[in-house]
TrEMBL record:
Highest taxon, organism lineage: Bacteria
Name of the protein in its database record: HEXXH motif domain-containing protein
InterPro entries reported in the protein's UniProt record: AKG_HExxH (IPR026337), TPR-like_helical_dom_sf (IPR011990)
Species of origin: Actinoplanes utahensis
Length: 605
């Protein structure tokens, strides 16, 4: 098989065997190096597009050397030191800058930044490449608020500058110098000196396998959005990251060696993110910054390790999708993704499937590691992420928006999970994972899916008349509710609390993260489904519009023995609640769900 991207300057090939290995998640350094080659070729294409865009924009150079002149310099460096140019071009923030520049050129983004400031970043690439190669070079570089970031080196900063300005720059003997007015700054490695902040890195080693990553708190293009200011880590903060990375690396190498080998080959930059207010660890990656993982400070090495495994899956899939289309266009946000509270397009769902397959695989191995203080928690995380991945695979295969290569990718991914059902799990952990999985699916349906009004009216009339409604499925449309993007954390937190801190379980609804929980939730997750039915019914009597009470009642009914009514409430909560509203509360929720279970075509779907 040969997959060729028409936008690449040179053809890039990926064998069918490597494609299938990538799909199954079993990727060694060799495949990662192929993805890096794909990214390098793509960046060269973007660089050529930048040269063309600069020629079409009369303001692209301003007082700076023209893009054409800088391109000539890069060609001269390339002829003598191609690895130096490749190293700079593959620096992750360079990809973000190129993508931003292309969007700006094609009208996809605005801003007040002068064109020569954005285009002038090209000059920093030539400056960095010449320094790596040890070649002399002289240019001028743009300043944003007195700052300029040099790829792979760090950031110079000059005081008393206007928002947009320039600095002279040159290299001698591999050392970068920058001058603004009477002030000259020397790029003195990773050491912070007046006017210079060096780009620091961390090296972690375990069992003969080494990971070296930049810890980027400087580059304006390190984030997934527009340029941002530097947020320099203090020595103590940097030391904390260094310790956590070493601990996480030791864990990955020891217990997740294949994942570690891939990370060692392709993970090149860590971007620290601000802490979340709720204490959760946040992580992200960007398809335009191959090799970068953004992450807020995690509480421990295990959390960091799973975040790295998760985000590197996104990085790998982004690299593959730069080579071959896996879905037919972006699609509209109408699909259920078990890890998101809002509807997703097909492309986003595919990304999540691959990432959560990696998370499930991590916990499948991690649960076998002895010494966890709460051994049932890894079982829960594995069961939960496994269920999420399988559910999403069924959805994306049925949706019909995959290309032939996309379908092959998902089918190979699904096949890699064939024997996962044979794994023995802690019973309580498995039940809690099922509760959270079912709760999220039903919660998404009741918030984003809306039954057709005429069908609801016909059902209401049949209920009042005591007759059988006419045939027909309960048609519905997905209409995303922008206000419902974050609503599911409480029950997930409750399940984890049950396993990790059972002594705090009874007070979970009094915490910040558990404010949405009711007494009924606590009874249900403690295994008392009968009491939960009664309490959720009372909650609905007090607030018939409570989405959590409707889904909670479905969970409780199914686990208390009323399987038919509970299943209808979990699979059609939007219909049951809409019918209850149409009847002005004249029917008991459980009775109404039981009635629908008898009349829906084929019973509960």
């Amino acid at each position: 098989m040969t997959i060729t991207s028409s936008t690449d300057p040179v053809p890039i090939q990926l064998s069918a065997e490597d494609f299938d290995r990538l799909a199954a998640g079993d990727t060694g350094p060799g495949v990662i190096r192929q993805l890096i080659a794909i990214e390098h070729s793509r960046r060269l294409a973007l660089l050529l597009a930048t040269l063309k865009a600069a020629a079409e924009n009369p303001f692209s150079a301003g007082p700076l050397p023209s893009a054409e002149r800088t391109w000539d310099s890069l060609e001269e460096i390339q002829a003598q030191a191609p690895d130096a140019v490749a190293a700079v071009l593959l620096h992750p923030p360079v990809g973000r800058w190129l993508a931003h520049l292309m969007r700006r050129h094609h009208g996809g983004t605005g801003g007040r930044t002068p064109a020569h400031i954005d285009f002038g970043q090209l000059n920093t690439l030539a400056l960095a490449a010449s320094a790596i190669a040890g070649l002399p070079h002289r240019t001028r570089v743009p300043l944003r608020a007195g700052r300029v970031s040099i790829p792979r080196f760090g950031m110079a900063e000059f005081a008393d500058c206007p928002p947009w300005d320039l600095a002279d720059a040159w290299t001698t003997g591999g050392v970068i110098h920058l001058r603004h007015g009477a002030v000259t700054v020397e790029a003195s490695g990773t050491t912070d000196t007046p006017g210079w902040a060096g780009l620091r890195s961390v090296t972690a080693t375990a069992d003969g396998l080494t990971l070296t990553v930049f810890v980027d708190d400087l580059d304006p293009w390190r984030d997934v959005a527009d340029p941002i200011d530097p947020v320099r880590l203090s020595p103590a903060e940097f030391a904390t990251w260094e310790r956590l990375l070493q601990e996480a690396w030791t864990l990955l190498v020891t217990h997740h060696r294949p994942a570690a080998e891939g990370l060692a080959a392709g993970f090149t930059s860590l971007v620290p993110l601000p802490a979340e207010h709720d204490g959760d660890t946040r992580s992200a990656s960007s398809g335009e910054a191959f090799g970068t993982i953004l992450c807020s400070l995690p509480p421990d090495a295990v959390t960091l390790a799973v975040a790295l495994a998760h985000e590197f899956r996104h990085i790998k899939l982004d690299g593959l999708m730069h080579l071959v289309e896996l879905s037919e266009g972006a699609g509209i946000p109408c699909l259920y993704a078990p890890w998101r509270d809002d509807p997703r397009p097909a492309g986003g769902l595919l990304q999540g499937i691959y990432a959560f397959h990696g998370i499930a695989g991590f916990w499948r191995s991690q649960r076998r590691v002895p010494g966890h203080p709460r051994p049932s928690l890894p079982d829960f995380e594995y069961a939960y992420s496994r269920a999420q991945t399988r559910h999403a695979i069924r959805i994306v295969l049925a949706d019909g928006v995959l290309t032939p290569w996309g379908r092959r990718f998902v089918e190979r991914l699904a096949a890699s999970m064939d024997d996962w059902s044979d794994d023995d799990l802690d019973p309580e952990a498995a039940e809690l994972a099922a509760l959270v999985t079912d709760s999220h699916r039903a919660g998404w349906l009741i918030r984003h899916r809306h039954p057709h009004p005429d069908r609801v009216a016909a059902l209401a009339e049949a209920w009042r008349e005591g007759t059988e409604p006419g045939p027909g499925a309960p048609g519905a449309d997905v209409r995303p509710d922008p206000a419902m993007r974050r609503w599911s954390g409480a029950r997930l937190g409750l399940a984890r609390c049950r396993l990790v801190a059972p002594d705090q379980y009874a007070e979970a609804h009094r915490t910040g993260w558990g404010a949405r929980l009711s007494t009924a939730d606590l009874r249900l997750f403690a295994g008392d489904a009968t009491s939960a039915v009664r309490l959720f019914t009372a909650d609905l009597a007090a607030d018939p519009e409570s989405a959590d009470a409707w889904t909670g009642l479905g969970l409780a009914l199914r686990r208390s023995g009323d399987t038919a009514a509970g299943t209808v409430l979990l699979q059609h909560p939007d219909l049951v609640s809409a019918l209850h509203r149409e009847l002005a509360g004249a029917a008991e929720p459980a009775e109404l769900a039981g009635w629908l279970a008898r009349i829906l075509p084929g019973g509960p779907a």
